[in-house]
Amino acid sequence: MLLAYWELLLACCTIFIVVVFSSRPRLVGGVLFAGCAILVHLILLQQKVVGSFGGHFLPGTLIVRVGRVVLQSEEGGLVHIPFAFAVVGATGFGLIIVGELVTAGISHFYNWVHLMMYSVGAALSLSMGMEDVTARTKSRVAAVRVRNLRAVCDPLLLAASGALQWTHVHDQLPMAVMMHTTLGKLLVTLAAVQLLSSLAHERSPANGGACTILRILHASCWTINGIWLILIGVLLYINHEDEGDWGLMNVIAAHGIKPKTDDEAAGVFLVLDVLLTVLLTSTGLLLAADQGGGRGGGRGEQDVEQDMDGVSVVEDLLPESQTNQKR
Fold first, then answer.
1. Which residues make Cβ contacts (< 8 Å) with residue 177, sequence separation at least 6?
2. Tell me: the pLDDT tens digits for 218-232?
3. How many independent structural domains does the chain possess?
4. Where are the bilayer-spanning segments (predicted)?
5. 34-38, 55-59, 129-133, 242-246, range with the lowest pLDDT
């Protein structure tokens, strides 16, 4: 094996911490690009299982980072990144496409499905950087058009990716089918929440109660999807032997701990996913409040201090007539 098991775990933990928590975008972009290059290198060396793990771990880590960006922003629906990083992301997906073509070709239908998945990822990466381009042109009309276009196209791309995960048989093992099907449903849910959040931020102030809650929900949906991808890699594809699949599920089964159904196992790991998401989201909100006076959390501490009339966040969601009656 090219990488020892402990070395692989250490490298993955380091990549996750840097990508998710670093405040230096250039460092994050460099680490992700290096990770994609290493992944392609392993695929070209026929390290299939490590390649399968990396193909889930790296996108999952990136998606968790996106959730953190959404949580700390006031845009709500759309994710904005510098165009240079968008190009890096698209190039990373392009490298994976090259690795797929070189090692697997296009002789099977599932190869085409994989190419579609990576193409959607590249398109989303470029879309996230388009508003950086319009900002440089200083054209307000172009900026509005791009934002409106992204508000529709980004959820469509996410839903398309979810449909591919939902319908494509990545791995014929029942547990793998169940986890990828669940991933597809989570991506479709993310697409719906993103569209709803974009609409809400167009109609209501970003620091209002409704937009704040939707922004937290939107960020949580990104995080849930990212952690789920990482769990797929760890549970099914991480390997420390020369032959055969090895994952956490196999270790659990080797000790006689087996779920009665695949649905039961997926439910347990989905709960674990939610718990980790709640932890990361709560931590992100606390850090955002400390650094920016409530930025990303909507109603900051100054807003709460000025809100002396006792109106709660829940009342912000009520019609004006009902709010007046309560007062």
1. 169, 170, 171, 262
2. 999 999 999 999 998
3. 1
4. 6-22, 27-44, 50-71, 83-106, 112-130, 216-238, 268-289
5. 242-246
292-297, long-range: CB within 8 Å, 24+ apart, which pairs?
Answer: 292/72, 295/72, 295/74, 296/71, 296/72, 296/73, 296/74, 296/215, 297/212, 297/216
- Specify the pTM: 0.77
Phi, psi of 43 (to 5 degrees): -65, -45
**Residue 135 has which token pair?**
């900002």
Task: Compute φ and ψ for 83, nearest 5 degrees.
Answer: -60, -35
Domain region containing 273 = 5-299
Within a domain: 56: yes
CB 252 within 8 A of CB 236: no
Residue 280 corresponds to which amino acid? L
152-181, pLDDT tens digit by residue?
A: 999 999 999 999 988 887 677 788 888 889
Distance CA 43, CA 97 (A): 11
- The answer to whether residue 82 sits within a structural domain is yes
Angle between helices 48-72 and 209-232 (to 10 degrees): 170
Question: Would residue 257 count as lying in a domain?
Answer: yes
Q: Has residue 273 been placed in a domain?
A: yes
Tokens 């508000």 appear where?
Answer: 151
Two structure tokens written together for 152: 């529709």
